[in-house]
Amino acid sequence: MDIVTFLPFIVLIGAMFLMTRSAKKKQQAAAQMRNEMQPGTGVRTIGGMYAVVKEVTEDTATLEVAPGVHAIYAKNAIGAVLDDEEYNRIVHGADHDLKSDTPVVPDDASSLTQDDEPAAADESPVDFGKKDADEDALKKDTDADDDLTKDADVDALKKDEDAPKKTDGEADAK
Length: 174
Hints:
alpha+beta, 4 helices
C-alpha cells in the first residue's frame, strides 16, 4: 500500500489527539482551581450565581449565597474562583481602579455647562415677536376658514332648492 492512501487517516488521528490533549489540559486546570479554593474566596457557579466559599470538603463546597443563607454545591458546579477585587467589583459594584490619573467623566453634561458666575437677576428674556406673528397668522387662517364655510353652506342650500323632490319609490341609482 501507498503512504498517500494512509495520509488522510494519519492527519485525522493527529488532529483528534491535539484536540483531546487541549481539552484534557483545560479540565486539569479547572480541577486544580477547584481544589485550591479557600474559605472566604468569591466564586461564580456554572449557573452564573456569585457566592462566597464558607467550607470546602472533598466533593462539595458550602457557599454563602446571601448573608446568612448557605447552600451546598458540588465542586464541579464551581465555574470560576474570583480574586477579591474582581468579586467586589461584580457583586458590590466597588471600583478600586480609581488609582489611575484618568479624569472622571460625569454621567450627564450638567457639570460641563454650569457657569462660574450667577446669572444677573434683572435680565429679562428677549421677545423676538414670534408670539405676535403666530397670533396674527392664526387669526387670518380662522377668518379664511369662516369665509369658506359660509360659501360652502350657501352653495349647498342652492343645490337642495334646485333639486327635484323625490317620492317614496324613487332612488338615486344611475
